[in-house]
Write a structure and sequence with these properties.
One of its GO terms (molecular function) is DNA binding. It is a single chain. The protein is built from 21 helices and 18 strands. With about 500 residues, it is an alpha/beta fold. Strand 15 and strand 16 form a beta hairpin. The protein is elongated and about 85 Å long.
Length: about 500
């Protein structure tokens, strides 16, 4: 038989590239050769495919089979090519519908008994197949629900290799094999809780609403027990639900992380890595397949760094570029992957190692150099990218419960975001935190509204980046007030929030 062709998908981040899988049979010494820049896991597919075909009673011919993965210069990683390789090899010997094989994309790993094992990243693979013009895809049965989230393409969820073969017209026996289910841990929804549970931090709650309305970054500094973690955990509850496009991004990243997907998520993600996390854990990477880090998993949601001063400085400094650009590009030898990273950063830290520095009625035992080193873990360039500095004090009365509920705050945030989206309708931005500084500086404002910012810039109290961030924050305050005019009051309040002088 002439060269047989089918298709697979190679993932690079959440972007999929089409791979043509070619199989050729020649009358030479029996062998099974796999070429086309495969990594070690993919190179081992030869043994998996051979045994799976034999146990599925679809034995391969005892001649030389050469399988080429094209384009050959594109790096291919992982075991998700097994099914495509197996079907191309089977077609060199068995009677099969070549038309059906050529219009189908195959995704999945094979077990030695011929069952299809689930693989991560099926959702972006199916999206890539559909966008490339294909109308049918074969996936492991355990990934079927995830693949069905993509409209406009037929999904075949196969339990065994024999099921795939019969779908292409091969006459073979049906094997009673139990489908393999995914053993991955489900990604948890944001922590539950209502803003009304927050006690004695009325101004902090208001600042959190401001941050949510404009998607601004926040750093909260205060002693242990002030309620920093409680406030951060309530933030996802007052943020608007994900749009369809955002939900697709979040679902693709969860798929790459190996989490099972039954439906597109609607609630914004909430990531809270431990302070022992490495740069790779926070930013993403890996020596083989590039995996998304915490900042990518928090895309379109909240990245919460509790006890931020306990993180190594190099880890925190790794946030500088993605916070500015809204994406993270990871370079490895032979591969470059880009992930979305536009998230809302919330940082919580104590004032010193013991937590009592500046606390009335408490004794701080930390020497001055230790306090300076502790506070400098969050470097100047990182702080400059944060919009709101929120100092918090220890609660002194349990009777000062918040009168703001999550439902009321969510309505205020939604109204402010709707106003901002309407004002920015002719621009590529939809929330204030994304607007460029050049655009803001050209926007007309009430006479004298920017005077306080201009003086702070002249005195060196803020940088030009801080100037722009204060302007974004001022527009959010105006949106919350329900006005289309930026006043000196809004700018002054924004400057105080930026400098941590008011809440």
């Amino acid at each position: 038989m002439s060269v047989v062709r089918t298709w697979a998908i190679a993932l690079n981040g959440i972007t999929g590239a089409l791979v043509e899988v070619e199989a050729d049979l020649s009358s030479q010494t029996p062998a099974f050769d796999l070429i086309g820049l495969a990594d070690k896991a993919l190179g081992e597919a030869v043994r998996r495919v051979s045994n799976a075909c034999f146990n599925a009673q679809l034995p391969l011919p005892r001649r030389r089979i050469t399988v080429n993965l094209s384009p050959a210069a594109l790096p291919k990683r992982g075991s998700g090519f097994d099914v495509a390789i197996a079907m191309a090899a089977i077609a060199t010997e068995h009677k099969i519908s070549l038309e059906s094989l050529h219009r189908t994309v195959h995704i999945g790993e094979l077990g030695l008994d011929g069952r299809l094992r689930p693989v991560p990243g099926v959702l972006p693979c199916v999206i890539a197949a559909r966008d490339a013009g294909f109308d049918r895809v074969v996936v492991p049965f355990a990934n079927r629900d995830e693949a069905l989230l993509v409209p406009g393409i037929e999904v075949i969820g196969a339990v065994a290799l024999s099921d795939v073969a019969r779908a292409h017209g091969v006459e073979c026996e049906e094997h009673e094999l139990e489908p393999i289910t995914s053993s991955s841990t489900v990604v948890a929804d944001p922590l539950p809780g209502d803003l009304k549970d927050v006690v004695g931090q009325r101004d902090a709650v208001e600042s959190l609403i401001v941050a949510a309305a404009g998607a601004h970054h926040v750093v909260m500094s205060g002693p242990p027990g002030a309620g920093k973690t409680m406030l951060a955990s309530r933030l996802p509850g007052i943020l608007p639900d994900l749009t369809h496009e955002q939900a697709i991004d979040v679902a693709c990243i969860r798929s790459l992380a190996g989490a099972p997907l039954m439906a597109l998520p609607s609630v914004v993600p909430f990531e809270a890595p431990h302070h022992t996390a490495s740069v790779v854990a926070l930013i993403g990477g890996g020596s083989g397949i590039i995996r998304p880090g915490a900042i990518a998993r928090a895309a379109h949601g909240v990245l919460f760094l509790d006890e931020a001063a306990e993180f190594p400085s190099a880890v925190l400094d790794g946030l500088r570029q993605p916070l500015e650009s809204g994406s993270i590009t990871i370079h490895r030898a032979g591969a470059v992957a880009t992930f979305p990273a536009r998230c809302q950063l919330v940082v919580a830290m104590n004032p010193c190692p013991c937590g009592n520095y500046g606390v009335r009625g408490a004794e701080c035992t930390c020497p001055s150099p230790a306090i300076r080193r502790y506070q400098s873990r969050l470097s100047g360039p990182v702080r400059d990218r944060i919009d709101i500095e929120l100092p918090m004090r220890r609660v002194t009365s349990t009777t000062l419960a918040s009168t703001v509920t999550t439902a009321k705050a969510r309505d205020r945030v939604a109204a402010a975001r709707e106003r901002a989206a309407h004002r920015l309708r002719e621009t590529p931005w939809r929330v204030n935190a994304e607007v460029s500084g050049a655009f803001l500086r050209r926007e007309p404002v009430v006479a004298g509204a920017r005077d306080a910012l201009d003086r702070a810039l002249e005195r060196g109290q803020i940088t030009l980046r801080g100037y722009d961030r204060s302007m974004r924050l001022a527009w959010t305050l105006a949106d919350l007030d329900g006005t289309d005019k930026l006043s000196a009051t809004h700018v002054g309040r924004a400057l105080l929030l930026k400098q941590g002088m008011a809440v």
